[in-house]
Structures are given as C-alpha cells and as structure tokens.
Amino acid sequence: MTAASNKRPTTTRGAQGQDLDTLHAIGLALSAGPSRWTAMEGGYPIFRDGECLGGIGVSGGDWQQDEDIAKAAVESIGANYEQ
Fold this sequence. Notes:
Beta-Lactamase, 3 helices, PduO/GlcC-like, GlcG_carb_metab_protein
C-alpha cells in the first residue's frame, strides 16, 4: 500500500529524505496506523503506460534480495517500477 499510494519504492528514508535507523523506521510505520505505511525496503509501485496500477511488497530475505525479487516480479508482468 505504501509504494502504490506514494508512487515510489518503500525505503528507510523519512518524508524529508533523511535516513532512518531501524527503530525509527518501525516507529514511523506503527505511528501511521495499521496497513498505512512501511519504512522498509522491498516495496515497489507498479506502473504501466504511466499509470500506477498498484504495488508489490516482498520480505523474508535481506533488503537487497527483497528489492531484487520485487523488481523482477514487476518486470515479469511487463510493467515498470519507475514512473
């Protein structure tokens, strides 16, 4: 939901682009409310023909594995993860 609603990948950066440590990233997600925000890598929006169709979130590996799998999944359906 975070990647789709913000039309950008999820990350451990705050709204102003500052790096967040793990504790602050989790705090941001919890303070936003259930199913509202995640500040962890692995989420990407899905674009086709310039329109955001939704998003994908992957977890379970390290952050780089999660990102690689999410990107590959988006590309496998002929979509883009960048606008």
